[in-house]
Amino acid sequence: MNISELFFNAAILNLAVFSFLYCAAYNIYSIFKRNINNPLLIISALFFAPILFIFIFSSEVFKYKKVSVKNNLYTFCLASIYCILFFICLLNNNFLKNNIENLLLIVSSFNVILGIILGFLLSILCKKIPFLHSVLMIFLISLASLSLSSFADDTFSFGTSSAYFIIILLSLSFLLLLFLTIGSTLGYLFFGESRFNYHIDYESFIATRFLMSKKSSQAVSLITIISVIAVMISCAGMIIVTSVMNGFTDTLRSKILGANAHLMVLKYGHNFNEYQKIIDKTKSIKGVISSAAFILKEGMVSSEQNVSGAMIIGMDIDKLPQNHQLLKYIDNKTLENIKNPNKIPKIIKNNEEKEMIYPLVVVGKEMANDLGLLVGDLINFISPAGDVGPTGIIPRAKTFRIAGIFKSDMYEYDSKFAYMSLSDAQDFFNFNDTVTGIEYRLSELKNTRLIAQEIDTLIGGYPYYVRDWMQMNRNIFSALQLEKIAMLIILATLIFMASLLILVTLIMVVIEKGKEIAILKSMGATDSSIMKVFVIYGVTVGLVGSLLGGFLGIIACLFIKKIGIPIDADIYYFSHIPILLEPLEVVLIIFAAIIISFLATISPSLFAAKLKPVDGLRYE
Q1: Which DSSP state fits 304?
Q2: Which of 100, 393, 454, 583 is 20–30 Å from 12 (CA)?
Q3: How many CB atoms lie within 10 A of CB 248?
Q4: Tens digits of per-residue pLDDT, 539-596?
């Protein structure tokens, strides 16, 4: 299946998830509107949402009030505004030229900003916190996302399964739902009195008094402290795990790109002999730091002790620029041996061999160990694409001398790669003046897609084509991206569980402060003012826990990086656990913890806002 088909399947599943979620939300809303408190019916409304939705919707279709139709119309109009703005961005050529990480960041920022704005407007229009209509809006947008599969092939450089796109689409959809809810809550808080009221002076004062009150029960105080600690530990754990994963990804990427090109220009067919003209035409492109022709073929290598498969690469290593990543894996002695073959120690077995001059090759450390080779030893290369003889194809064989041994700390490369000069490879494979392709090294990887398109335009397209490092290593980077997103979702669930303690704390505070709420409402406090009090209370708890967790996570990462936790280098090819702290991710994690804490305050705050004064003073 190609990328567009995988994306379309993921979009179908995303639509199904939000269809189910809307049915469940509608069922629960209808049950509570009718004041039915049957737990079995509520559970059935969740697990058999589509079936019950049909019956509930059918029973109410002729009882809709005018305001309900109007609110649904508002939702449809705002969803249309989102889709129009998003498609306008898609039509912008520069939008799709970003690499996938930047593109996801842009779309996430788009969802955050528009989610808050559209949620705020929806709350003002509906005059409540319209969670049900927010879910309906996501359902409508998910319906429109089915048409985006045609853009997937031009957008995603990697992604080998529907799971990758499912996680991306669900994450972006829930992110939009999250900020629609936040926007609608903010709209109700600041516009719930039918006028814009941004003041929180006395509400913050009362919230602080509730939080610092010495008359609070010990249970409430204890749960509040536990809530802060839970948010702190969850936030710190998320920072540590993401930093370790960033370290693994960055280290692995640097090792892969050390032995592979950032970009390749290849040609359909086997007569790529005009490579020098293309190098001269493209070497001046901004962002390209080096370009070199290469030959890449599979073959076999043998020594007196063993036989192994190999990837034979023909490239003039001694002509590479000093900042080339491959040179970091090759020591200076090897480079001297390539430039001055006479300095290579020769193992002489008989007088005839003394006068022989063999072409040079550089092999990986693992290959040298498997074949029992040292610098100066002889190694036989065998090409399956040989010459045609009386009995069929005769494999071509040739003897080389080991000029050096490289170590990239990647087993796949150290055990399979062998480098020889371009002219030696052309002679061995009978390529004459032909090469496999041209490799390019770039100054910044984030510009890979833009430079690839520029090179493709400059060389005229067919019969040439360009492949970037993400396309050449699609499987491994797709797996790393999928793993990182999945881990973030799992760790975000931990923060969500910690925020439930904030919800429990607020419910207990509301129950405990029922008399104070009643007095405030008797004195003229509005529902939105009461809600502000408890939102500030819960957000303060989440803010303290998030900031402490961020500080603890950063200190823990710096400590791990300093002392270094050793791991088995033979398995992971890292001697210590790599740590890479990304400041933006740390800020986003802290921000996400605060946002989740804010969401946890909505339900108990609404409960406090709807509390009647007579109920709060009934038993006083």
Answers
A1: S
A2: 100
A3: 19
A4: 898 899 999 999 999 999 999 888 878 877 666 666 778 888 889 889 988 988 898 8
- State the Cα–Cα distance between residues 188 and 249, nearest whole angstrom: 43
> How far lies 235's CA from each of 109, 244, 432, 488, 546, in Å?
21, 15, 61, 11, 6
- For 26-63, the pLDDT digits (tens) are 888 777 777 666 677 777 777 777 887 777 777 766 55
- Residue pair 122/129 in contact by the 8 Å Cβ criterion: no
Angle at 567 between CA 562 and CA 569, to 5 degrees: 115
Q: For residues 135 and 177, what is the distance between their CA atoms, to the nearest angstrom?
A: 7
The Cα–Cα gap between 19 and 509 comes to 36
Q: What angle do helix axes 131-144 and 3-33 make, rounded to 10 degrees?
A: 160
**pLDDT attached to residue 602:** 87
Residue pLDDT, tens place only, 243-287:
888 888 888 777 777 777 889 999 887 788 888 889 888 888 888
Token match 């109009």: residue? Answer: 77
Distance CA 261, CA 325 (A): 10
**Is the Cβ–Cβ distance between 257 and 410 less than 8 Å?**
no
**427 vs 431: CA distance, rounded Å:** 6
CA distance 345 to 614: 98
Q: Residue 311 contacts by C-beta under 8 Å, 6 or more apart in sequence?
A: 296, 297, 298, 416, 417, 418
> Residue 76: is it exposed, middle or buried by C-beta count within 10 angstroms (0-12/13-18/19+)?
middle
Q: What angle do CA 461, 462, 467 make, to 5 degrees?
A: 65
SS3 130: coil
Task: Report the C-alpha gap between 360 and 341 in whole angstroms.
Answer: 8
